Amino acid sequence: MIALTSVLTLGVTAVLAAGPVKVETQVVHASNGAPHVDPGLEKMRQGFEKAGLRFTSYRRLSEQTLTLHPGKPAEVALPGKTATLTLQPGEHARPHVAVSVPPLQTTVELGTDASAFLQAGPHDNGQLVLVLTAKK
Amino acid sequence: MSLNPATLQLLSAYVDGELPASDRQTVERALAADLRLRELEQSMRGLGAAVRALSEAEVAKVDFTGLADRVLGRVSRRPSVLDRFREAMRRPWLPVGGLVAVAAAAFFVLRPVEQPPSTAGVVVQSVTADAPAQLQPVVLKTESGDAIIWLVEHPDASGNHRATPLPNDKPTQAPVPAQPQRPRAGEL
Predict the structure, then answer these.
(1) Domain boundaries, position A116
(2) B137 and B178 fall within a common domain
């Protein structure tokens, strides 16, 4: 029983340490144009409003799911720029992702059922927002 | 014919009809010549009839109903779980192995377990920005655990940030003041 438990523990640790991670990325254009919220972005709108950021329009420009491997950068195209995501190697209970999207550089721990919203600069009388969500 | 053991055995075989023809004639001649031998022969026949009658009477009393089932039931009866457990416990290795297994199980059940870190929500470990000096990145947390990383003008401790840094791109001021998750020492 001890041996079996040890094997299972080591196996889980190895998965946590080395496994690829799927991250859903969205590029959203938030502006104060004609009121509009794309399907699936109402929660984002409410969260922004409660945080003191009030936009009237939330439009999804692109959406994709990336499979991140430790130490290997992956790119997300935004209008006029590129964001780079890199899964940090090491043993973590949840993925640590380094993100470079001008003008921000950040490292976030992506948990379940939550998203990271990164301001990605001005665009078309509004702001670009890079949304990262870890997929289960 | 004298009454010796061999004669009695021969006479008994005659009464039972087990003699060959030559011996049977010899016995019959002796019976014809000897009155004691005839009396003995009659006694043997009477005793044999009595024994057979008694045996048949005893057999008639016995109830053989369900005998086959009872016999087969005893032959094929499997020991119960309790019997098998008792039998197994008589083996010396099993109690020891059982105790080891129980001790191992108790160790894993009762040992203090570190609570795994919560996997809910988003945590921002670090954030920097290539932006003018008056703009600083702050982390705004939502009730659902989301994290908003935004540039604000002159962030202060009040948390009443104008969460918009860039001309012509500013969101309107929200009525509810934001509660930023100020980057803590060591996080940035």
Answers:
(1) 2-134
(2) yes
